[in-house]
Design a protein that fits this description.
Blueprint: H1 2-24, E1 27-34, H2 42-52, E2 57-60, H3 70-78, E3 82-85, H4 98-116, H5 132-137, E4 142-143, E5 146-147, H6 158-166, E6 173-178, H7 187-200, E7 203-205, H8 208-215, E8 228-229
Parallel strand pairs: 1-2, 1-6, 1-7, 2-3, 4-8, 5-6
Helix pairs in contact: 2-7, 6-7
Length: about 230
């Protein structure tokens, strides 16, 4: 009986070790999208997220959040997505004074919280332009990412966008795309390449907040001061 009991303990420990190893070797990435919401363009991205059952984090522009876009915002929330701050408008803030920076961030936070019920946790600088003043004024982690170059002026075929992303992805990657850009806007078609390929490679798609949590990284730790995040790695 004693030998049987010991054997059961060893089997349990073995199973636990295997499960832990599997959990620790899961590759994670986070899809993020900028410049929305838009009632015509954003739903095309949401269609893909729903199709593949993956969440994303949307960095939204404050002036675009209102009653007319509420249905799009609500749909993304229903799919498990979350929202980040992308300033009030599209103008870079790296040359702005502290008062203007603080005003645009606060107004955007307020309208996001009004329409989602949650204050955003992350900030993406317009045009990825940053300054010391911005880091001093904005009390949120600054998020960049592996860029897909899916904005106007680039060679924006679905294949090129997908290749730009796939060649830069590794465990902990933040993927930077856009749900709103001028037509033609092939990002949704690029997702038909990116998502299945990364799933095939063993990646799990999570929101940005879940990525930091699962990686055991606190982005507000003082050691990460003035960091522009592309990968979340312990």
């Amino acid at each position: 009986m004693k030998k049987l009991f010991i054997s059961l303990i060893l089997i349990t420990l073995s199973v636990f070790s295997v499960n832990s190893a599997v959990q620790n070797t899961t590759k994670l990435c986070a899809l993020t999208f900028d410049d929305g919401p838009d009632t015509r363009l954003t739903p095309r991205v949401l269609d893909r997220l729903e199709k593949y059952r993956v969440p994303a984090t949307f960095f939204v522009v404050g002036f675009r959040i209102n009653d007319s876009t509420k249905s799009v915002i609500d749909r993304a929330l229903s799919l498990g997505c979350e929202y980040g701050n992308h300033s009030w408008d599209y103008n870079p803030l790296d040359k702005a004074d502290p008062k203007e920076i603080a005003d645009k961030i606060a107004r955007t936070n307020e309208v996001i919280e009004k329409y989602t019920g949650k204050k955003p946790l992350f900030f993406r600088p317009p045009n990825l332009a940053v300054s010391k003043t911005m880091f001093d004024v904005i009390d949120m982690p600054f998020i960049s990412g592996v860029v897909g170059f899916d904005w106007a002026g680039c060679d924006r075929t679905p294949e090129n966008i997908a290749n730009n992303v796939l060649k830069g992805v590794r465990d902990g990657a933040i993927i930077l795309l856009h749900d709103v850009q001028p037509e033609p806007h092939p990002t949704p078609e690029a997702l038909d390449i990116i998502i299945p390929e990364l799933k095939k490679q063993g990646y799990e798609f999570v929101t940005l907040s879940e990525l930091f949590k699962r990686k055991g990284v606190d982005p507000k730790d003082p050691k990460y001061k003035n960091k522009l995040w592309v990968y979340v790695e312990p």
